[in-house]
Amino acid sequence: MRICELKHKEVINICDGQKMGCITDLVFELCKGCITHIIIPGPCKAFGIFGREEEYVIPVRCVKQIGEDVVLVECDSAEFLHKAKCC
After folding, report:
1. According to the model, what pLDDT value does residue 56 have?
2. Which residue from 12, 38, 60, 80 has the fewest beta carbons nearer than 10 Å?
3. Phi, psi dihedral angles at 40 (to 5 degrees)
């Protein structure tokens, strides 16, 4: 699977059935050459007018299944919601 294909898949938390959004970025560990986290935009502020200040940074260990259309994760969403970092 290519990264561009992964970015079109919706992420669903199997703990509560929440649709978290689509993967927007990946975090790599260069020394090991592996993906460590997936990044998903956080919830919108004020009806989506003011953008997003937070993002979900979910460890790869929480990914349970990658299917045709979705990625299933098992995690506490609030635990992995962080202030968004600019590149």
Report:
1. 92
2. 60
3. -130, 135
pTM of the predicted structure, to 2 decimals:
0.81
DSSP state letter for 26: E
Profile the chain (87 residues) by mean pLDDT over runs of 10 residues: 86 93 92 92 67 85 94 89 73
As a whole number of angstroms, the distance between CA 58 and CA 37 comes to 5
To which H or E segment does residue 3 belong? helix 3-6
Report whether 18 contacts 12 (CB < 8 A).
yes
The type of residue at 27 is: V
pLDDT of residue 5: 87
**In sequence order, what DSSP letters do the residues of 31-72 get, joined into one string?**
TTTEEEEEEEE-PPSGGGTT--SEEEEEEGGGEEEE-SSEEE
Residue type at 43?
Answer: P
